[in-house]
Amino acid sequence: MAVSLRASFSLSFTKLKVEPVLGVSGLVIRRGEIVILENILWRVMPDEHWVILGANGSGKTSLLCALTGYLTPTAGEVEVLGQRYGSTDWRQLRQRLGMVSSALRQRIPPDEPALETVVSGKNAMIDFWGKMTAADRRRARQILRQIECLDLADRPWLFLSQGERQRVLIGRAMMAKPAVLILDEPCAGLDPAAREHFLQFLQRLGRSARPPTLVLVTHHVEEIMPVFSHVLILKNARVMAQGPKKRTLTSATLTEAFGEPARLSQRGGRYALALRRSTGWKLRS
């Protein structure tokens, strides 16, 4: 009887074991003598939303390129939902990672309606030319409703605001049902009002039913909304700090990350960062 109970407990424990959504183990990228990334260890679990933070040149973009299969590692492994690059077709694996970036924003045809832009994400297509099925149209409209842009379905890209374009690109990424949605400095080019509207939208998206795991890449702490639970800080191609936001995001870690005396403040779940100059503390924008 004891053996049976032990076996039952072991089986239950195995069933309850939770796999990471995203796993990076011993990731190294070197090109000749240049170290691009060095021994990156990072794991993203379900129900976590992460921020990747760091100064320019810290390795943020290179890490994204490795995650999406555009930069081949020298050593180490990258896994998405237990599927490993090198052991699984990288084209299929890449579809599990949705990407929104300013570079993509510039490639959408100006006359393409928002609905077609969303549908084009099903096969990661730029300049949609395929046949749109009724099922594709239904799903795209559902996504447009989810990203609060259903009224923009027929509006050409040229006549969307920058904030609306960022939302539509999120919808495009969601068309492929990604496990992880990577937002690469999505507020670049947005005016203050548009930026705040977009960040509030991200907050609602992250709190919605069954959202993808959000990974926000930025060097502005002001963009870190309450929905983000964890922070990964990069410096000089290495992980400088990582973990729950409350423990990791401090004046001390940001002073080290940006190489200047920094003072972090928080109000209402939002952050602000001031850097010390010879004339005193200056709020970083």
Short description:
The protein is α/β, with parallel strands linked by helices. Helix content is 33%, strand content 28%.
Task: Report on the architecture of this protein.
It is globular and about 55 Å long. The termini are far apart. The mean pLDDT is 87. With 285 residues, the protein is an alpha/beta fold. The strands form three sheets. It has a six-stranded mixed sheet with strand order 6-7-8-3-9-10, sandwiched between helices. It has a four-stranded antiparallel sheet with strand order 2-1-4-5, covered by helices on one side. Strands 11-12-13 form a three-stranded antiparallel sheet. Helices cover 33% and strands 28% of the residues. The longest helix is centred in the C-terminal third of the chain and has 16 residues.
Percent helix, as a range, is 25-40%
- Tell me, briefly, the overall form: globular
Radius of gyration: 21 Å
Q: What is the count of DSSP helices, taking H or I runs of 4+ residues? A: 10
Q: What's the end-to-end separation, in Å? A: 65 Å
Biggest sheet descriptor = 6 strands, mixed
| Percentage of β-strand residues | 25-35%
Mean pLDDT: 87
Structural class: alpha/beta
Sheet with the most strands: spatial strand order: 6-7-8-3-9-10
Question: What descriptors fit this protein?
Answer:
285 residues, alpha/beta, 6-stranded mixed β-sheet, 13 strands, globular
Topology at a glance:
Layout: H1 2-16, E1 22-31, E2 34-44, E3 50-53, H2 60-67, E4 75-80, E5 83-84, H3 90-94, E6 97-101, H4 102-105, H5 114-120, H6 134-146, H7 162-174, E7 180-184, H8 192-207, E8 213-218, E9 230-235, E10 238-244, H9 245-248, H10 251-258, E11 262-267, E12 270-277, E13 280-284
Parallel strand pairs: 3-8, 3-9, 6-7, 7-8
Antiparallel strand pairs: 1-2, 1-4, 4-5, 9-10, 11-12, 12-13
Helix pairs in contact: 5-6, 5-7, 6-7, 7-8
